[in-house]
Design goal:
The chain is α+β, with helices and mostly antiparallel strands. 33% of the residues lie in helices and 19% in strands. The protein is rod-shaped, with a radius of gyration of 43 Å.
Length: 395
């Protein structure tokens, strides 16, 4: 070996750093256990150097600054005194030296099926699938090596990330169903709650501080369904939309009155049925279709007329209705005839409606009065309960 080879070899031994070919590793172990005194150690800004001896943690070094290196001597770094090998006259450090990456690992991918979740609005059970990205970081390299990695050997990046991802997926599976139930969110609308879900995941993630790891944030994610669940979801949405339309039609046609809504349904159903039947074999063609629509209107008028007529057996002399003697529209004694009714307030004969055309008072017939004491339902107009004698007029 020539003098220049010796110098080059000595220079290589005095300069210690993670090689460029190993920059991608989460943990890199320096191959030599003996390091000469006064060696120059380079620690990058996104990593830490961790020293062990005989399986025990000795110390941690971060970067020395821009363009700076750590000179390994006991005078500069006191904890290195625990690494001095006395058999070499104090000129050699004996250590296991690890370089641990501390920059955030972004773009870590996760994905899995979630437990079955019942949609609070559609009343069906679905099993959503979630796929996305998250970020994590090693915050305490010494804890990571001691409490997770250990001294037994070097794990691959895939092994480390697989374990961290499993922890994150467990938090997702545990917290997302609770979020849906608590907020009463429709499963198919979960993507609209991206920020809230991200915050919830961070709160519900396992505390990994014992091994020196921290979850940072949830990145982009997507919630979808398999083919069978997607079909069931679309069918349920169609049924729900049809129900909504019918409920709005009920309110519009009858003001919440079921009989008037039924009249409208009968009109539309009968008309459409006869019109469709009229075009087929044995039907009456367009004439029969017109007759069907006419019958539909007739049925609607019949229902509406039933709603306007007083019920047979109604207590006599009730305000707003003629006496129940013979035909209700031909009552004697000055009661209104035809399609008129008597206003219970001003006694004027007015057309039926919600309010009197003369004085504006309500034309609604008196309602039965429940007793506030015993809950007995008393006849309209009663002043006192027939069961216990309590005043039911609130006076």
């Amino acid at each position: 070996m020539g003098i220049m080879d010796f110098i080059r070899q000595g220079t290589q031994e005095m300069m210690i750093a993670r090689p460029d070919s190993a920059k991608q590793y989460i943990v890199y172990k320096h191959p030599e256990q003996t390091i000469p005194m006064f060696s120059q150690l380079t620690v990058d800004a996104d990593e830490a150097a961790v020293f062990f001896r005989d399986g025990a943690l000795v110390g941690v070094l971060r970067t020395a600054g821009a363009g700076q290196r750590h000179q390994l001597s006991t005078g500069n770094i006191p904890f290195l005194s625990n690494l001095v090998d006395s058999f070499t006259g104090g000129n050699i450090f004996v250590t296991d030296l690890y370089f641990v990456t501390m920059r955030p690992f972004r773009g870590a991918r996760f994905g899995d099926s979630l437990p079955p979740i019942k949609d609070p609005e559609l009343e069906i059970t679905l099993s959503p699938r979630i796929y996305g990205e998250y970020a994590w970081q090693i915050t305490h390299p010494d804890r990571f090596l001691v409490n997770y990695l250990g001294m037994g050997g070097q794990m691959t990046n895939e092994q480390v990330e697989s374990w961290i991802t499993t922890k994150f997926k467990n938090a997702v599976k545990r917290s997302l169903p609770q979020f849906i139930i608590r907020q009463k969110i429709e499963v198919q609308h979960l993507a609209a709650y991206h920020d809230e879900i991200g915050q919830m995941f961070m709160q519900k993630c396992d505390d990994l501080s014992e091994i020196g790891v921290q979850f940072l944030e949830l990145g982009d994610f997507n919630i979808n369904f398999d083919e069978d669940d997607q079909k069931r979801l679309e069918e349920a949405q169609a049924r729900y939309a049809d129900l909504k339309v019918k409920m709005r039609a009920k309110d519009a046609l009858g003001g919440g009155n079921y009989m008037q809504y039924a009249a409208g349904e009968a009109m539309l159903g009968a008309g459409q049925g006869f019109a469709q039947g009229g075009g087929g074999e044995g039907g009456g063609g367009p004439m029969m279709g017109g007759a069907g629509m006419g019958m539909g209107f007739a049925m609607a008028n019949m229902f509406a007329g039933q709603m306007q007529q007083p019920q047979q057996g109604y207590p006599p002399q009730q305000p707003g209705y003629p006496p129940q003697q013979g035909h209700p529209q031909a009552a004697p004694g000055g009661a209104p005839a035809g399609n008129l009714m008597q206003c219970p307030s001003c006694q004027a004969a007015v057309p039926p409606g919600k309010f009197c055309a003369e004085c504006g008072a309500s034309l609604a017939p008196p309602q039965p009065r429940p007793c506030p004491s015993c809950n007995t339902v008393n006849a309209p107009g009663a002043k006192f309960c027939t069961n216990c004698g309590t005043n039911v007029q609130g006076g």
